[in-house]
Amino acid sequence: MKSEKGQSLVEFALVVPVLILLLFGILDFGRVYYTYLTLDHAGREAARTASIGKDDATIKGVAISDAAGIKLTSDKITISPGTRSSGDNVTVTITYPVDFLTPVIGQIVGTFNIKNTTVMRVE
After folding, report:
1. How far apart are CA 68 and CA 25, in angstroms?
2. What is the four-CA torsion angle of 28, 79, 76, 104, rounded to 10 degrees?
3. According to the model, what pLDDT value does residue 35 have?
4. pLDDT class of 99 with cuts at 50, 70, 90
């Protein structure tokens, strides 16, 4: 039998890229899920603030403060309708772009937008 001194090194070199892609995929999934949950919470709190009759600046401020972990900005938040009266529905929509860390997935997919829409009745 011939010497097999380099066999494990070659096998390791073949397996490492797959393991690294798997690790980055898990990280990306966790980041996207965290962003989704954060936007969901911020959208609910902003819609609740809108439902008690607050102005648009206050509503956006609540959403931004509740989504501090993802650095949400006010240009990503839309509130409709502009004027609200009791019994109307108010809709708060937040759109946030997420970039993937995984090199291969990031190049294929590009920027992925997560959109959250919350509707509540104005009291």
Report:
1. 24
2. 30
3. 94
4. confident
Number of separate domains in the chain? 1
What's the pLDDT at 5? Answer: 75
CA distance 6 to 4: 6
Q: Is residue 1 part of a domain?
A: no
- Which two tokens mark 41? 């919470």
Q: Which are the contacts of 100, defined by CB distance < 8 A and separation ≥ 6? A: 28, 106, 109, 112
Residues in the chain, how many? 123
Instruction: Tell me how far apart the alpha carbons of residues 37 and 20 are, in angstroms, rounded to a whole number.
Output: 26
Angle between helices 56-66 and 7-51 (to 10 degrees): 150
Residue 2 lies in a domain: no
DSSP 58-101: HHHHHHHHHTGGGT--GGGEEEE-SS--TT-EEEEEEEEEEE-S
